[in-house]
Amino acid sequence: MKKITVMIFLLACLVCGGMAQEKIDRALENGVEVINNHLEPYKIKGEPTSLVLERQFSIDTEQDEIAEKGLVDIKTFDVDSGGNIYAILWRSDQNYIYKFDKTGRFLMSFLIITIIMQGSPDLI
Q: What is the mean pLDDT of the chain?
């Protein structure tokens, strides 16, 4: 009799556990599949639960002052220890470097010329 009771109990657990599946919604937004599982995110006490991005500054390449200097498409940039930003505009025959301060204000631009020496190995 105990075996039958245990078997019925296990069968009931399996049936009830299988029916309690979470509802999952899938949607396509701007070509990206978004899955909503309706679960609350895991929270750690004392830790932030949301990500907040604040704009410190921006370099608007459509701004007339910047566009006039030729900087219209930033693909490479770097920052020095003083917070100055260097944007590099790669061109087929020229490499322009644009310098901005840490607030995004344009300071200057300059060109680096690479000289390749040809000839005897003693000159290189």
A: 77
